[in-house]
Design brief:
Blueprint: H1 3-6, H2 10-18, H3 24-42, E1 45-48, H4 50-66, E2 77-81, H5 109-116, E3 120-125, E4 137-138, E5 142-143, H6 159-166, E6 172-177, H7 183-189, E7 192-195, E8 214-219, H8 222-232, E9 262-265, H9 276-291, E10 295-298, H10 307-322, H11 327-331, H12 335-345, H13 349-372, E11 375-379, H14 410-413, E12 418-425, E13 431-438, H15 443-456
Parallel strand pairs: 2-3, 2-6, 9-10, 9-11
Antiparallel strand pairs: 1-3, 4-5, 6-8, 7-8, 7-12, 11-13, 12-13
Length: 469
């Protein structure tokens, strides 16, 4: 296995293909070898299709030899989260209740765009059942683990994608984010994850969790996310929520830095208890942006906790989802999912309408906030990664996964772009993430600030899965 090839960014791979220095076939084989060597330790994949991947790599190699690549990501290995449709592969969503024997001929928009741009699709990555929680284990695929310490969770629900990304098992990874499901695993595994403005990346079919659910990229570099967003943001008529395409190249302006930007820093949003090591690392990272020329100021909390608002949206979504399954199917589901669905079913129309009004007020609050501030910085998560196979840490005031993800889900409610940027490690070696949030539609500004930080604090990835001593 050539780990050197699997560590190359998508941007560098495309440049090397263009110069005919390496081949997509070599790179794809290296990724497949990496999966064979490492995936038994982390369980990041639920589908690996070596034959189709190598066929796609050989086709890409032929195109590059002719000097005729078909897109921005031609020959770059990519993965798809098992919530997202991928023609020819079952999308079982981490559930025993989804029938494997059915028509799987459709691509979701993001899958279609990657294929059209020549990406080599390697397989599908693991998810908790229907992506319902912030860690990654399911009745179907078992427990997914963190490559930095296999006793720990990689987070979720895009935990398989983040674990694969950290280990170089593909350069481009599709995740979904309904309450932090891109940013949570990015924070716990030390990779870069972006939840774009809602509608920036077309999605289909519509999520049962409604307009808080997003689809987006997970990569090892900010530049690769910008490259990937150029592909994913292309239009798709099936998503009636999708924003009009701008044709913007998100790589342009990426190196413009943060000089003069007004950045608000909220270390705890006024209501979150943050682990001291996390707090120290994020405060230091905020200081780096100040050293780069931004005006960074610790600010009062921009809003009160929207936990109840999110709970209603998420639990009602779960209830709507599970209503299509019978009693026997639900008996084989993750008990936690069944529990929150029952709570959602008990919500009244008045409860839901109040949650919608509270959401609108939160969105207005943040719209006004960003009239004064270009960006908001927070920790991605208040705690480091904890034991794999559990929904929440054994100690602390936690009853559900949303209790330890208070920094992420508010920005699903507001539909703002937000990214998790790796910014350090705990003394025990667990990654720590900083969240960068911008006003709605300012996705490029999030990328620009993240790239400024990355340029002076390069992201570090594990060479292989680490088991505890």
């Amino acid at each position: 296995m050539s780990t050197e090839l699997t560590r190359l960014s998508a941007t560098r791979l495309v440049a090397a293909y263009r110069r005919k220095e390496i081949s997509p076939v070599e790179v794809t084989q290296a990724v497949l070898d990496g999966i064979e060597a490492f995936d038994s330790q982390v369980n990041a994949f639920c589908v690996v299709d070596s034959a189709r991947a190598m066929d796609a790599a050989r086709a890409s190699e032929a195109r590059w030899r002719r000097g005729a690549p078909i897109g921005l990501t031609d020959g770059v290995p990519a993965t798809i989260k098992d919530i997202v449709l991928s023609a020819g592969w079952p999308t079982l969503r981490g559930s025993l209740a989804v029938a494997r024997d059915q028509d799987w001929s459709d691509d979701a928009p993001v899958t279609a765009r990657l294929r059209e741009h020549g990406a080599v699709l390697i397989g599908k990555t693991t998810t908790p059942e229907f992506g319902w929680k912030g860690v990654t284990d399911s009745p179907l695929t078992g427990i997914t683990r963190n490559p930095w310490n296999t006793d720990l969770t990689p987070g979720g629900s895009s935990g398989g994608a983040a674990a694969a990304c950290a280990l170089g098992l593909g350069a481009l990874h599709i995740g979904t984010d309904g309450g932090g499901s891109i940013r949570i695993p990015a924070g716990f595994t030390g990779v870069f994850g972006l939840k774009t403005t809602f509608g920036r990346v077309p999605a289909w079919p519509a999520s049962p969790f409604g307009t808080i659910a997003h689809v987006g990229p997970i990569t090892r570099t900010v530049t690769d996310t910008a490259l990937m967003l150029n592909v994913l943001a292309e239009p798709d008529a099936r998503d009636w929520h999708a924003l009009p395409t701008t044709g913007r190249d998100y790589r342009l302006g990426l190196e413009d830095g943060v000089q003069g930007l007004r950045i608000a820093f909220s270390p705890d949003l006024g209501y979150v208890e943050v682990d001291p090591e996390v707090a120290q690392a994020v405060a230091k990272a905020a200081g780096v942006l100040a050293e780069l020329g931004a005006h960074v100021e610790e600010t009062p909390a921009p809003f009160e906790s929207p936990a109840d608002c999110f709970r209603v949206h998420w639990y009602v979504g779960a209830s709507t989802l599970l209503a299509r399954f019978d009693k026997q199917q639900r008996a084989n589901m993750d008990p936690g999912l069944v529990e929150i669905a029952a709570e959602g079913a008990a919500c009244t129309t008045a409860d839901y309408m109040q949650a919608m009004a509270d959401r609108a007020a939160l969105g207005e609050r943040m719209g006004r906030f960003h009239q004064d501030w270009d960006l908001l910085l927070t920790p991605s998560l208040p705690i480091p990664a904890f034991t794999a196979g559990t929904e929440f840490p054994e100690t602390g005031p936690y009853a559900r996964w949303r209790d330890w993800t208070p920094f992420t889900y508010p920005f699903n409610l507001t539909q703002q772009p937000a990214a998790s940027v790796p910014c350090g490690f705990t003394a025990s070696g667990a990654p720590i993430g900083m969240q960068i949030v911008a006003g709605k539609y300012a996705d490029a500004l999030v990328l620009r600030a993240a790239r400024a930080f990355e340029s002076v604090c390069p992201f570090v990835m594990p060479e292989h899965p680490h088991s505890p001593e």
